[in-house]
Amino acid sequence: MSPDESTPLLEVTQLSVAAPSPNGELPLVREVSLRVGRGERLAIVGESGSGKSLVARSIAGLNRKLTVSGSVRLGGRELLDLSSRQMNLVRRDRISMVLQDPMASLNPLMTVGAQVAEPLIIAGRGRRESRDAAIRMLDELGIPQARSAASGYPHELSGGMRQRVMLAAALIAEPELLIADEPTTALDVRVQRQVLELLHAVAAERSLTVVMITHDLSVVAGFADRVATMYAGRKVHEDRVDRLFAEPAHPYTRALLDAIPRLDDPGAELLPIAGTPPRPGALPSGCSFHPRCPRAVERCAVDVPATTFADDSLEFECHRPLLPLEVVAR
Amino acid sequence: MFWVILSVIAALLLVALVGPMIAPASVNTSSILDAFSAPSSAHWLGTDAQGRDVFWRLVVGARYSIFSAVLVVAGYSVIGVLVAVAAATGGRVVDQVLMRVCDAGLALPPLVFAMGLAAVLGGGLGPAIVALIATGWPFTARLLREVLRETSQSPFIEGARVLGLSKTRVMMRHILPNSLDVLIVKWAADIGFVILSLSALSFIGVGAQPPIPEWGALVNEAARSTAQGWWVIFAPGIAIALTVTAFALLGDQLQARLNPLLRTSVTAPTVNERPAS
Amino acid sequence: MSVHVTGVTKRFRSGSRSHLALDDVTLVMPHGEITGIVGESGSGKSTLARCLVGIEQIDAGRIDYDGSPLQPFLSRRHRYDARVQLIFQNPMSSLNPRMTAGQLIEEGVRRVPRARSADWRRSRVSELLEMVGLDATDAKRYPHSFSGGQRQRIAIARAMSVEPEVLICDEPVSALDVSVQAQVLNVLRDLQRQSGITIVLISHDLAVVRHLCSRVAVMFGGRVVEQGPTEAVFDSPVHDYTRSLLDAVAVPDPRRERAKLAEFGEYREFRQSG
């Protein structure tokens, strides 16, 4: 199967995730579609409960206990139909994940080097060769004295160093797609910056395709090419990163940007978003965001907004979008 | 499963409550002529050595067995809670002394100790209850003391203290109510165990005395005449086994139902939480 | 009430090892202002918060409130001084799950000397709930039925119920979702503006501190490395550490962020080729 250049590397279509509950299925992710081209970087932002992590986990085939429907294609190949053994192979060779909590994702009883080398060893490469590759990888990721660090254990490392080890293990098998789920959230400001810089540099050197999940818009501002905003299980907005920050078309993205204090604009008034995100079992009628939306009109409480494709990069679900100038001009 | 167990227990409690009222007046009168008649439509579980109806004796005895057990558990729980609270609030010396006393109590085999104590007190249902209370409280006190210690480290307890609330208020309104769910589970399981202990005391003769139809006493009486009628010993034996099992299962079920519910509301994790510095 | 921290040292011991959490910390938090304390994990900022309230005893130095120390520092068997209140980081675990919002707040209201009548207490509870942007009818609800942001506001209402003069907030919004952080931050700002209370805001988030505080202290490794008016510290930092912190903060501006990442890329290329 040779991937056609024009098909995106990752194509998620109408992905839904639901959790069984005593009162029927709870919809956690609702018909989310995404396309990520080779070498492209997509960020998915949203609050807790928006379903952003579930989308990431579904792409990596980690939601076996939930009801996942729709389609996830990697290089044209459907992943949702694969058996768990086949999916293991996909995760070994093609998709890697970096998670929020490096301590919970590293085995405390295995040396750092062995964990980084593990994907290669599983793939059948020699021990010595794998180990040397692991040390080179650790060195590339800026771990000082990589050789001796490789024979140490995760608990001897700081949070930032652990995240680098996670990244080394994720990259060593040269995946096509890297999924980073809140990779900087648990880290201190300066370490957060280091990890972000490193992630950017290694992804650039390898022309890696990245899907990054985060609740922090600032983190992805310089990293992502495109940003998708999720709310209450739906992708409500997607745009090129520059336009999304400068002229957010969806009122929710706008509200998120207005609600965070900015170091570069300390005098700005903070505009809190009224209310709280809805729970999956109790979604509002019409547009899920309407009870909290400053622009909501009667229609928003009645009609579910359909997806509007404004130009080749902007799409949104909103009855009263804040259209960017260049879209209006056309 | 939970509801099945709960209805079995409800039925047992109902029998214990109304049993003596609906039992025929003849339940304690012996009629030697009827002795050891096998189970029949007139006597569902047959009759004993004195010709008394085994079924009705069981029904009447349920009150003694079950209510005595409830009394024992309530008794030692009150003492245990008082001791644990005193230890937790009274400063280091009080804590050390009370806990060492508890440890001493825990070191003795409870049933053997209770037998001795009941005998010293002269035997009978009352002394047996007192003896079981006396041997039971250290278990509650020790367990609750540990739970209180754990709960008192929760952030919301620190918050209550910082508000300037008195020690007593923090203990009674904040720490204790958030520690008792462990005991609720223990109580349910304990009632079964105490019924068994009480029966054991009655069986060896230092508990309920004839003609009180406490179930252990029934087994004791019947043990002398198993050859003439197996049902006489079987019936109370099975009643004890069933009741003990029901309460033990209730304890298990409560643990499964109560714990995660209460725990999640106390320490629900948040996604964007940062480690405290 | 102004707070003066002078030469405060706090050491934690476990077995033979000991760790200096606060190392000769000297700080001024002026009356009626919001003072920010920023630092990364391990900087000692949370330990300082706990020492300010009296949960932790200090080993050396003194903490004065309007010139005199709090009672907790004087006696071992203490009852906390209600004039200084603490808001915890995680509102999920800082409220008793078995008491309603109203009961939790009323507990503090009772401590105020004039809280004789039940009517007064009830109206005071409603007043406090409304002050933090909640509804008086919310008094009957239990903590688990509120969202994180609402719970944090209940915690603030509760702390305010004893009419404190100093409110210490230890990472009050870092456990909250982005969309609700502003609710809590605005409540704090309004409190300071309206009641003139002294607020100490401890946070790892420099943008939050810059937004809210008139003074700021930067902590690193148990020491205060820099302090002063917020604008001065943020616009012309003196200490290298402060500068490195400010450089590291991500801002929601793609152009600036890309420039920062590109700079690192060049540095990395240079290092690898060299």
From TrEMBL, chain A:
Location of the protein in the cell: Cell membrane
Molecular functions per Gene Ontology: ATP binding
Ranges of residues in domain ABC transporter: 10-257
Record's keyword annotation contains Transport: yes
Keywords for the protein's UniProt record, in alphabetical order: ATP-binding, Cell membrane, Membrane, Nucleotide-binding, Transport
InterPro entries: AAA+_ATPase, ABC_Ni/Peptide_Import, ABC_transporter-like_ATP-bd, ABC_transporter-like_CS, Oligopep_ABC_C, P-loop_NTPase
Primary residence: membrane
Superkingdom of this protein's organism: Bacteria
Membrane topology: Peripheral membrane protein
Protein family (similarity comment): Belongs to the ABC transporter superfamily.
NCBIfam families in UniProt: oligo_HPY
Name of the featured protein: ABC transporter ATP-binding protein
The species this protein was found in: Herbiconiux daphne
From TrEMBL, chain C:
Chain ranges of the ABC transporter domain: 3-246
Lineage: superkingdom: Bacteria
Keyword Nucleotide-binding appears in the UniProt entry: yes
Pfam families: ABC_tran, oligo_HPY
Assigned keywords, A-Z: ATP-binding, Nucleotide-binding, Transport
Signal peptide per UniProt: none
Matches recorded under SUPFAM superfamilies: P-loop containing nucleoside triphosphate hydrolases (SSF52540)
Record CDD domains: ABC_NikE_OppD_transporters
Keyword match Transport: yes
Classification of source organism: Bacteria, Bacillati, Actinomycetota, Actinomycetes, Micrococcales
GO molecular function list: ATP binding
Protein name, per record: ATP-binding cassette domain-containing protein
